[in-house]
């Protein structure tokens, strides 16, 4: 099992404790730790209280039906997610309150009140219906961070269509794979989006994907607007492609929300696993919204005057749960930003915090480490005094980065919520409650009320160091892998009996706090993004020059991990720098820029066991320049020496 040496060290030495600052605790939503005992005493009652905060068209009859590994929550209940995020807020003062505050990378802005967002979602819901989308149909959303991304998700939810959001950084091939796996009928994209001053040509990528996406009947294209749309001329195929603004202008603005069963699918989101093929994680309606709304409210301690900013992209689960559904279900003000944190300069995020008076800020450790490297002067230039709560998610946060975040951004006054969860869990699972939990740099502390976690060994016994395990079903859990129940059972439910295996290593300290030590499977976490080593290996061997490839993670100061690839070439292809670049770019073409290996080593052989298994542990040691341990199981021990020599050459 691979563990994060950094967090292990921290666990052994970390004795700094940060109780909630009195000013914060004084006005916090949760002030009494009895919430944990109450939830533990009757988990189903706890979650039904949260479900009852939502608007249901018809009540549920049974809270939980658990036929492992299949769970149904709020059985028989009917509701609509867009109704809960929008309509519900319209008969009071929230109707005129800002719902979405958006800023583009070039500085253009758009805002929507709850009422305005409602009108837009209804109109687009009708537009989708006009294209023949009905309940249960799949719609792919491939958009930049523009308001239409949230609107499209909510419009799908309104009419009962299942959305599958594909991150705008993914390649055409990744997009068509996802279109095909879900058999999506409609694709929603844009002429482009801004990223670091450059244009991401989404429609052109989509066109490339559409050549091999036979199920897509219609394409809706958002005009990003401004200088971008003046520069990009999206080619529109008559009959197939439609401008978003034209459809919406022609659509009626009254759109009845579809009455959805609590267990109807709300969305599919693809995530990397241990095979070459990403999994379509399936989330449903009632349980998902219940846990997402509850955690948003309590973990971020949402109050009437908050301006909430989560810096994730809507293409990831964080964007789904904590930009769109959780905050809007709670009627808060959500800031959404299109671009990069260093455009036009490294103060951009702090400028946005000052400009919009951001009070709650949620980001990833990789971003925090970059800010830390850029220096204290950038945040110091701006007034960050409105900030009152900070959050982090995506990977273990190293205590130095935690301390820096706390001081340089939080001014020593803001609690930090380190939240552990996954695409599959749908919502936050392990986290402090900021008004009552004393935090420690580097640990996500303990399970959210109503969530049962444990640390287990292979045999399924509780231990202080081993695998993280979730021992009871939870409302926002994935229900299956799209079209592949077997993979659902094998991946998550086969290690122990009726206990969920998240794929992370963990330890528990003497205060009962959980330290997440990183993935124990062949999944990397690069800058907070999950990438399967097999996926990258498949992309590498797809190149005509590559005979065999092995991919491992290498510790990286900013990204947490970076990708290292060991590649053997076919005899006809002599190694060269040009070929190395070409092979690296090939991974970008196959998957997307985020999956390009940072380091590629050409090697005549890969270290294998006598049974032919690649010894990744050795490759990790080599990639990180460590002394190589036991090699007695190697079929050919000279391979390692040759590899080390080659890597040394490569580094020099
Ligand atoms: C994996 C899930 C949840 C949204 C972002 C990533 C790692 C996530 C933490 C944290 C330590 C964390 C785990 C997990 N992870 N949050 N607070 N501390 N590790 O979602 O792509 O589904 O990845 O990210 O390894 O399994 P994802």
Provide a short characterization of the protein structure.
33% of the residues lie in helices and 22% in strands. It has 652 residues and is an alpha/beta fold. Strand 29 (560-569), helix 20 and strand 30 form a beta-alpha-beta unit.
Number of domains: 2
Please provide the count of β strands.
30
Average pLDDT, all residues: 95
The top level CATH class name of the largest domain: Alpha Beta
Which ligands appear in the coordinates?
5'-O-[(S)-butoxy(hydroxy)phosphoryl]adenosine
Nearest-angstrom radius of gyration? 24 Å
Helix share bin: 25-40%
Q: What is the CATH topology of the largest domain?
A: Rossmann fold
Helix count, DSSP H or I runs of 4 or more residues? 22
Structural class: alpha/beta
Main β sheet profile: 8 strands, mixed
Based on the coordinates given, report the CATH architecture of the largest domain: 3-Layer(aba) Sandwich
Described by the principal axes of the CA atoms, the overall outline is globular
The CATH H-level superfamily of the largest domain is: ANL, N-terminal domain
Low-confidence segments, given as residue ranges, are none
């Amino acid at each position: 099992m691979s563990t994060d040496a950094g967090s292990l060290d921290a666990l052994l030495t970390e004795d700094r404790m940060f109780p909630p600052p009195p000013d914060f605790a004084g006005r916090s939503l949760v002030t009494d730790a009895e919430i944990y005992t109450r939830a533990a005493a009757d988990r189903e009652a706890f979650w039904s209280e949260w479900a009852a905060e939502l608007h249901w068209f018809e009540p549920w009859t049974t809270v939980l039906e658990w036929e492992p590994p299949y769970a149904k929550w709020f059985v028989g209940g009917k509701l609509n997610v867009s109704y809960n995020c929008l309509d519900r807020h319209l008969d009071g003062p929230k109707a005129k309150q800002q719902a979405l505050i958006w800023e583009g990378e070039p500085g253009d802005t758009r805002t929507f009140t709850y009422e305005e967002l409602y009108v837009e979602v209804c109109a687009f819901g009708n537009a989708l219906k006009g294209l023949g989308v009905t309940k249960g149909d799949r719609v792919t959303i491939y958009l930049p961070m523009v308001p239409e991304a949230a609107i499209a998700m909510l419009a799908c939810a309104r009419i009962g269509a299942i959305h599958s959001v594909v991150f705008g950084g993914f390649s055409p091939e990744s997009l068509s794979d996802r279109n095909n796996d879900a058999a999506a009928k409609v694709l929603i994209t844009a002429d482009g989006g801004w990223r670091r001053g450059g244009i991401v040509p989404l429609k052109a990528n989509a066109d490339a994907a559409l050549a091999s996406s036979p199920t897509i009947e219609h394409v809706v294209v958002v005009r990003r607007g401004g200088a971008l749309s003046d520069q990009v001329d999206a080619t529109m195929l008559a009959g197939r492609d439609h401008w978003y603004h034209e459809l919406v202008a022609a659509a009626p603005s009254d759109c009845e929300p579809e009455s959805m069963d609590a267990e109807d699918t709300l969305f599919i989101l693809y995530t990397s696993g241990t095979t070459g093929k990403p999994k379509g994680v399936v989330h449903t309606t009632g349980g998902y919204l219940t846990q997402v709304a509850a955690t948003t409210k309590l973990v971020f301690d949402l109050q009437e005057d908050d301006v909430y900013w989560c810096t994730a992209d809507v293409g990831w689960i964080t964007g789904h749960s904590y930009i769109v559904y959780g905050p809007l279900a709670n009627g808060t003000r959500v800031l959404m930003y299109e671009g990069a944190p260093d455009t036009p300069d490294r103060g951009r995020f702090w400028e946005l915090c000052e400009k919009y008076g951001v009070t709650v800020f949620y980001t990833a450790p990789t971003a925090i480490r970059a800010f830390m490297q850029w220096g204290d002067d950038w945040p110091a230039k701006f007034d960050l005094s409105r900030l009152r709560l900070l959050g982090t998610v995506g990977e273990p946060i190293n205590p130095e980065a935690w301390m820096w975040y706390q001081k340089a951004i939080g001014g020593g006054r803001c609690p930090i919520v380190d939240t552990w969860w996954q695409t599959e869990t749908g919502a936050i699972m392990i986290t402090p409650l900021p008004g009552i939990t004393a935090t420690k740099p580097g640990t996500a502390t303990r399970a959210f009320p109503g969530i049962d976690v444990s640390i287990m060994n292979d045999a399924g016994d509780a231990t202080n160091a081993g695998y993280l395990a979730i021992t009871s079903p939870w409302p926002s859990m994935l229900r299956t892998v799209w079209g592949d129940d077997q993979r659902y059972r094998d991946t998550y439910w086969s290690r122990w009996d009726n206990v969920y295996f998240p794929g992370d290593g963990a330890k528990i300290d003497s205060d009962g706090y959980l330290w997440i030590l990183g993935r124990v499977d062949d999944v990397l976490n690069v800058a907070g993004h999950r990438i399967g080593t097999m996926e990258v290996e498949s992309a590498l061997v797809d190149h005509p020059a590559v005979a065999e490839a092995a991919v491992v993670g290498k510790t990286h100061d900013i990204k947490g991990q970076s990708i290292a690839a060991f590649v053997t070439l076919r005899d006809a292809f002599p190694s060269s720098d040009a070929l190395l670049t070409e092979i690296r770019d090939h991974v970008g073409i196959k998957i997307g820029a985020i999956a390009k290996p940072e380091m590629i080593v050409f090697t005549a052989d890969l270290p294998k066991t006598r049974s032919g298994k690649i010894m990744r542990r050795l490759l990790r040691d080599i990639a990180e320049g460590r002394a190589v341990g036991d090699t007695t199981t190697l079929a050919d021990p000279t391979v390692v020496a040759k590899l080390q020599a080659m890597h040394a050459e490569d580094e020099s």
